[in-house]
Design goal:
- The protein is an all-alpha fold and 152 residues long.
- It has one domain.
- 97% of the residues lie in helices and 0% in strands.
- It contains 2 helices and no strands.
- It holds the Pfam family Muted.
């Protein structure tokens, strides 16, 4: 049995790495905790201090600033909104006015065409009357001229 126990001891020393690994793991863990543990705790305390400071001072400042500035900002936004609505209304009025102007322009064009036609008709009747009078006067002067030549 002695040989068996010696073989087991040699086998465990050669192939059983658990005690070595356990020692390495505990060493790594200790080194990691020493190097990183304090830094993490410091970071947590710093974050806690910042949040406490923000909670105590900054929140009140933000509330005061918003109480002071929000009414003016809201008023400015309402003015801008009214200006936008006014602009939109003026655009719609402009489009309505432009359509009204276009309609009035067409009406004027139609009245101008009618007036031109009336003027041309009157001009034609005046020209016809002038031509008729000219013809009558020529005939009258021709008769007078022929009666003067006959008398002489």
């Amino acid at each position: 049995m002695a040989i068996t126990s010696e073989v087991e001891e040699v086998f465990s020393r050669l192939f059983d790495h658990r005690p070595f690994l356990k020692g390495e793991i505990s060493f790594f863990k200790r080194e990691f905790e020493e190097k990183r543990g304090d830094r993490e705790v410091e970071e947590l305390f710093r974050a806690l201090e910042l949040t406490t400071e923000i909670k105590q001072a900054q929140v009140e400042k933000v509330v005061e600033a918003s109480d002071a500035n929000l009414p003016r900002t809201i008023a400015d936004i309402q003015v801008a909104l009214r200006m936008c609505h006014t602009s939109l209304d003026s655009d719609s009025r402009t489009s309505r006015l432009s359509s009204e102007i276009e309609r009035q322009r067409e009406d004027r064009q139609q009245r101008l065409a009618v007036a031109k036609a009336e003027v041309e008709a009157k001009l034609a009747s005046i020209n016809a009357a002038y031509d008729l009078k000219e013809k009558e006067l020529r005939e009258k002067f021709a008769k007078l001229d022929s009666s003067n030549t006959c008398d002489s």
